[in-house]
Amino acid sequence: MLIFEIIMVAMAAIRANVLRAVLTTLGIIIGVAAVIAVVALGQGAQRRVEAQIQSMGTNVLTIRPNWGHFGGVRNVAQRLYVRDADALKRESNGLLTVSPVASSGQQVTYSRWNAHAEIYGVWPEYFAIHDHHLALGRYFTEGELQGRRRVAVLGANVLSNLAGQDSAALTPESILGQTIQIRGVPFVVIGILKAKGESGFQGPDEDIFVPTSTALYRLFGGRERLSSIEVSTFSPKEQEQAYAQIDQIMRRQHRLRPGDDADFQVFNAAQMMSTFNETNKTLTYLLAGIAGISLLVGGIGIMNIMLVSVTERTREIGVRKALGATRQNIMFQFLVESLALCVLGGVLGVGVGFLAAHLMTTFAQWQTYVAPYAVFTALGFSAGVGLFFGMWPARRAARLDPIEALRYE
Q: In this structure, are 291 and 249 located in the same domain?
């Protein structure tokens, strides 16, 4: 038989039992759709975080306290101080822009409204480090930092969080120059930032920024411990030199001897992106693997229905062999049927996966991205399932004795 004729016979056999073919491919459809949707969700999350980290600046370095050991347990946090930031600013040969960061959640009130917000004590340089821009007003100055002045710069969404459903009554223009209460301490609002969007690592739109000195001594109970020290270089090219200077200055500040473990850690955006991507890949592969089990289950269903088909068409196989069809012809025919069922299920599954990704974006507001490699991988895997699970039924059909097949009732 010609290859084209074999393919047409296989397609005719599938068309003769359309409903059974659709039900048979249901496992493949569900498996491929699940793989497409899961990978789309993972890719969307990765792209979103990459964009957010890029907006934070690839030349930003974050110094955080390391963890010490007490009684063999890794649970004692080391400390960073304002004097560490002073030393970095003073001794870094002008390479770094520096700002200490002290943060704590506090209750904020204004008139009849109140809300909980994260308060950041920072230097004026912090806004340049993270590329924040003003919508109204101004930043606080070095003089206000030194004088521990009670001034505040609000993130773009602070007012809407504060007023809630009554946000129309509280506008940026109306609160600029007014006094808000942070933990009962009055602060004058001198500036409001432009919206920057959410981030997986910080949410500047919901935060309030005040001078570090004011935050430490008027809001945080006089403690000197910092959450982190933010520094930036002129460009990512200077980061290697910046790492060396930070390590040298911080070790001298903390009186660490050569060979001692550092009691601080330095992170940059690229490291955070790499860490997130590795975690995201692991979760995506895990979920895609779980979804892939459905493909295997669908493959078993394909094999089962193909075995039934071989039994039902035993006389037909006998007739074809009597007319000259070889074992290879019969085997190829049943492999084509199995492959066609799985590829059809794969195509339908891709369509369902696209629909699921669209619904997640529309209704759940989750960013998704259907990567081309995910589509081709899912289709290739479904075709492989068809070939693998169709092999045994095809071999069984090919090995039938034509005389016994013609006698089959």
A: no
Q: How many angstroms separate the Cα of 99 from the Cα of each of 61, 73, 334, 397?
A: 11, 31, 70, 76
Tell me: do 279 and 386 sit in the same domain. yes
167 token code pair: 């946000």
Whole-prediction pTM: 0.62
Q: How far apart are CA 290 and CA 285, in angstroms?
A: 9
| Residue matched to tokens 């933990």 | 183
User: For 148-201, what is each residue's pLDDT tens digit?
Assistant: 999 999 999 999 888 877 767 788 898 999 999 999 999 999 999 998 865 444
Same domain, 344 and 379: yes
Q: Which two tokens stand for residue 398?
A: 């090919």
Q: What angle do CA 404, 407, 409 make, to 5 degrees?
A: 120
DSSP code for 364: S
Task: Examine the fold and report which residue of 218, 246, 267 is the final residue of a domain before the chain moves on.
Answer: 267
- Whether residue 306 sits in one domain with residue 244: no
Please give the structure tokens belonging to residue 347.
């195509």
Q: Where in the sequence is the domain holding 145, given as residue range(s)?
A: 60-267
Tokens of 162: 């504060």
Task: Report, as ranges of residue numbers, the positions in the chain whose pLDDT lies below 50.
Answer: 1, 70, 73-76, 199-201
pLDDT digits 0-9 by tens, 261-287: 888 888 886 666 677 777 777 877 777
- Check if the beta carbon of residue 340 is closer than 8 Å to that of residue 25: no
**Residue finishing a domain among 224, 250, 267:** 267
Distance CA 387, CA 390 (A): 5
Number of domains forming the structure of the chain: 2
- The Cα 312–Cα 296 span in angstroms is 24
- Burial label for 382, CB within 10 Å (0-12, 13-18, 19+), is buried
